[in-house]
Backbone:
């Protein structure tokens, strides 16, 4: 009996120590399989969403995907380091009335690290102060439209004659 107890402890304790060291942490192989299945299932869903939105890009100008790396103000963000200005929508400067609020709004609905799709405006491919101009989709939302709908920005109607997005419902709703 004593011999069995010594062998049990001699074998059991090292096995427990090894389990702890390799990260068993109370998880069964079934738990890890579920996590793998979750990743395998969710990854294609996100890819399908991006592909679906890319198909929705209009015109012939660039349509890019990327990650938000900076929120400059209420109508300009950086996507993978490239500056992107909202087409047709403007927000007050940060030093102006409502400027900080518009930037905070964009940060709330599309925080840094979010995946975005940018549909460059065919009518404004010449850029504005080194910024690409386009409609930005983030978390299933059109940021240009959201800024206007929240009354934190205004429609730049002087570009309605040249922007490919002028006939989009959101632009029409705000005065194009």
Residues:
């Amino acid at each position: 009996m004593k011999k069995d107890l010594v062998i049990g402890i001699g074998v059991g304790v090292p096995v427990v120590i090894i389990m702890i060291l390799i990260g068993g942490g109370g998880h069964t192989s079934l738990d890890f399989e579920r996590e793998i299945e979750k990743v395998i299932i969710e990854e294609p869903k996100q890819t399908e969403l991006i592909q679906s939105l890319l198909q929705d890009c209009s015109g012939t100008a660039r349509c890019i995907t990327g990650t938000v790396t900076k929120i400059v103000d209420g109508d300009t963000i950086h996507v993978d380091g490239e500056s992107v200005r909202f087409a047709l929508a403007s927000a007050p400067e940060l030093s102006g009335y409502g400027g900080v609020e518009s930037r905070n709004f964009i940060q709330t609905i599309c925080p840094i690290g979010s995946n975005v799709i940018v549909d460059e405006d065919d009518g404004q491919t010449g850029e504005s102060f080194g910024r690409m101009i386009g409609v930005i989709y983030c978390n299933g939302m059109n940021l240009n439209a959201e800024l206007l709908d929240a009354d934190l920005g205004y429609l730049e109607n002087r570009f309605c004659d040249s922007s490919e997005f002028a006939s989009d419902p959101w632009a029409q709703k705000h005065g194009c």
About this structure: The two ends are 90 Å apart (CA to CA). DSSP finds five helices and eight strands in the chain. The longest strand covers residues 63-73.
